[in-house]
Each structure stands twice: as structure tokens, then as C-alpha cells.
Amino acid sequence: MIVACKQTNEFWTLMNHFGYAGKKKLKDLLQQSDNRTCADCGAHDPKWASPTIGVFICLKCCGVHRTLGPNVSKVLSVTIDDWADEEIDAMIEVGGNDSANSIYEAHLPEGVKPGPDASIAQRTKFIRSKYEHQEFLKPGLKISSNKSTAEASPPKETSVRAPSSSSVQKLECVDGVIGHLKFTILQGANLAIRDMLSSDPYVVLTLGEQKAQTTIMRSNLNPIWNEELTLSVPQDYGLVKLQVFDYDRFSADDIMGDADIDIQPMLTSAVAYGDASMFGDMQIGKWLQSHDNALLEDSTVNIVDGKIKQEVSLQLQNVESGIIYLEIEWIPP
Q1: How far, in Å, CA of 233 to CA of 183, rounded?
Q2: Which of 43, 52, 120, 220 yields a CA-CA distance of 20 to 30 A from 268?
Q3: Annotated region Disordered: where (predicted)?
């Protein structure tokens, strides 16, 4: 029995060394009902947090928090980043979103708080008023920006710098356009036969009224395009429609399958990180494969060499076979 206890203690000592106990505490805190929605906009399932303030927040609000600077709100990913013990302790000390909001929103006027679908401008105005200017606190109360983690000990330095407030403004609507997406159509695989023995495929992308098309690849079921197609993203964007056609000289071109591309994960990540050139290479978002989309596998959004990019593999729908591989890159306006 004594040996068993000793082995158990050694096990938990080892787990604590690798941060297991701290991560479990953070995970348990995230499971609280008030922490299942963003402290600032109410969006479900937040995956970011500010140990400086003690709140869990969504990806969109995270982007605004970064503009405040780490002295006001240092932002960490709950699932990706490494947390210092004092940062986890600071979150636990606050007690969760409800506890923090009871202070920061003690005198919140009705109708001021943004919802999950709020614009970047609305979020920015509210979050700066709430934390930077502390406009909704009880009269006479002022919270020092050096509380919690700053008092315990300085947080570990990271290679990531918070973007300036001007970086997020790049996603503001300019002449009806919030930015551009460059699609590199890499290649197709096992495309459907629409002629006697092969097909002459080309790809068409559609976003609203915009269309962009690759060149036609003659007699090729495994074409390699490596062609770039660029679409402007309007403020009220929807899904991007990808279609593959077989070119026919004397009749209408035959459809060879289609797929919808959800650009929301890419744009949400772009909103959160603003000027990607300020960050090192890292994963910042993900479009999850499911039964109701055409993804072959989860598609991650990454910062690569200062650019926001996403690799996508699509199983063509409404056709007997066919896969399209492409890469998407965000281009600010």
C-alpha cells in the first residue's frame, strides 16, 4: 500500500512537471456554464482567454483584445498555447465570465453589448469601453491593468507580438469589399469521364455575382493546374461555389461535380489576427470535416511566412468521382 501511494505521488509529480494538472484546472474552469459563451459577445464555445482579465472569449473578440496590448489583455489559446501556472491561477482566482462581468459590466447600459454576429467596429468600440476605458464599472472603481498575472510574476516572453489597433482596421469594408481571397487551384484527381475515354476539365469559382475560371486541360482526369484565381469578398459574403466542367466544342459543357467552400473560418481568423506579418508561423483556425460538407479532412488555417493561408481538399459532390486540391490565401483590401 505504501509503495502504491509512493508511485501515485511520483506520477502526479511528473504530470505537474509537464503542466497536466494546470491544464486540467483550466479545462474544468472552461466547463462552467458561464464560460461556455464568450464574455463579450455571447458566442458559443469560446476557445481563447485573457488571464490578465480572467475571461474566456471567442476568436472574433480575441482579435480586438489583441489590439489592447498585453498590459490590458494578454490573450492565449485554451487548446494551443502553453500556459504559465500563474496565468491559470489568475483565471481561477477571478472565477469565470459571470464573476468578471459582474465587475466590468456592473453599470452596462441596455443595448450596448454586441452579439455573436456583431461587426468588428461594434466589438472594438464595446471591448475598448469595457476594459481599456472601464466605462461600465461602479463609480469610483478603477481596476489596475497590472493585476492578476502581473502581480504574481512576469509572464513568459513569447515570439508573438500583439497587433496594433490599425491592423484590425484593415478588415473594415472598403467600397463594399472587406478583402480578397486568392485561390490556387492545385490539381484534380480521378475526375469523372464525360467524353469517350477522358474529359477536358476546367474549374469555375463563384462568389455572389463574381466568377473566375481556370484554363481547360485537354484529355486529363488528373490535371495539374497550379493556377491562381482571385475573388473580392463583399461585406455580406456567403459560400464560394466550386464547379468542374468538361469542355465541349459543339454542345453545352458537362458538369463534373461541385463543392461549396465555407470561407468563414478563414475570414474569422483574419479578423482575429489582423496583420499576419507580425506573427510567426502557427495554426490560427480550422474548418472541420463533417457529413454535410465536401471536405476530405479537416482544413486548417495557418500563418505561413506572414500570410494567412488554408489548404483544402474537396471530394466533388453530385458526381461519381473526383477530388480537387486547392490553397486559399487572404489578401487584405
Answers
A1: 12
A2: 52
A3: 144-165
Note the pLDDT of residue 89: 86
Segments making up each domain of the chain, as ranges: 2-162, 171-331
pLDDT band at 81 (very low <50, low <70, confident <90, very high): confident
Helix and strand numbers (H, E) in the chain are: 9, 13
Grid coordinates belonging to 148: 492578476
Residues in CB range of 317: below 8 A, 6 or more apart: 257, 258, 259, 294
Q: Select 171-331's CATH number: 2.60.40.150, 1.10.287.130, 3.30.565.10, 3.10.180.10.
A: 2.60.40.150
Residue 165 has pLDDT above 70, yes or no: no
Alpha-carbon torsion, ordered 169, 300, 181, 45, to 10 deg: -50
Domain 2-162 in CATH: superfamily?
Arf GTPase activating protein (1.10.220.150)
Torsion-angle region of residue 69: left (phi > 0), alpha (psi -120 to 50) or beta? left
| Beta-bridge partner residues of 182 | 230, 329
DSSP annotation string for 248-265: -SSSPPEEEEEEEE--HH
> Exposed, middle or buried by CB within 10 Å (0-12, 13-18, 19+), for 250?
exposed
Return the residue matching grid coordinates 476530405.
Answer: 296
Is the full-model pTM beyond 0.90? Answer: no
**Residue 267's CB: how many other CB atoms inside 10 A?**
21
Angle, to 10 degrees, between the axis of helix 120-127 and the axis of helix 59-68? 50
Out of 11-25, 243-257, 297-311, which region has the weakest mean confidence (pLDDT)?
A: 11-25
**How far apart are the C-alpha atoms of 53 and 59, rounded to whole Å?**
16
